[in-house]
Amino acid sequence: MSPAIISSTPPLASNGKPQALKSSTKPVITSSSALPRTESTEIPAWVKPDLTRLLRVEKNPGSFASRSVSLVSLPAGSVFARITNPTPATVAYSSVQAGRDLHIELNCDLVYINHSCKPSLVFDMQRWEVRVSAERDLKEGDELTFFYPSTEWHMAQPFECLCGNKECRGRITGAKDMDKEVLGEYWLNGHVEELLEEKKAAS
Ligand SMILES: [Zn+2]
């Protein structure tokens, strides 16, 4: 080693700042340890990225106490989300009716969207899309809701609506039990319109 090389060595760390990095202590994430043990782990991971930008699910203790809140503002009538992963299902509290004889599970966080008698969204099961209500814009922070009788002819699990709107319809059992005039105030799926016509013809 020549003296020239030794003298060109830069002075050792000089300014007194400690080197504080401990880079080797990051926990190793494995597929099994990374997942929180909640029911949301049952949702396929590839479905979530889209929806996590659109909505936040508030899971509250007690059954049926969860709600969804919008993370985006969108104009009336625009597409909010697409239903990308439906699977045929038997009628259950979580299923959505998509045709006269077709019920599906949504298999994503859209399942946490509650009923309201003054809904912020519509579920269009023919186009497989969720749209902002045609009546008003959606604002960030609004609760996401749709009118369950717009898809459900007969609710598997009727319930007492607590939406608190002045036009609240009270007990919700499905479109088959509602007045045509009341239903006329809502956007309805084709299969519900069809079944209404049949009911009218039969009476
Ligand atoms: Zn209501």
Task: Characterise this structure.
The protein is an alpha+beta fold and 203 residues long. Helix content is 14%, strand content 19%. It has helices spanning 3-8, 48-52, 180-183, 190-202; strands spanning 55-58, 67-70, 79-82, 87-88, 96-99, 102-105, 114-115, 121-124, 129-132, 145-146, 159-160, 171-172. The strands form 5 sheets. It has a 3-stranded antiparallel beta sheet with strand order 3-9-8, with no helix packed on it. A 3-stranded antiparallel beta sheet has the order 4-6-5. The chain has a two-stranded antiparallel ribbon with strand order 1-2.
Overall pLDDT metric: 83
Query: H/E series, N to C?
Result: HHEEEEEEEEEEEEHH
User: What would you call the structural class?
Assistant: alpha+beta
Question: How many runs of DSSP E, i.e. beta strands?
Answer: 12
Biggest sheet architecture = 3 strands, antiparallel
Sheet with most strands: strand arrangement: 3-9-8
Radius of gyration over C-alpha positions, nearest whole angstrom? 26 Å
Bound ions, cofactors and other small molecules, one mention each? zinc ion
As a percent range, the share of helical residues equals 10-25%
Oligomer, anyone? Answer: single chain
Molecular shape: globular
Extract low-pLDDT stretches. Answer: 1-35, 44-48
What is the rounded distance between the termini?
106 Å
Q: How many helical stretches?
A: 4
Strand residue content: 15-25%
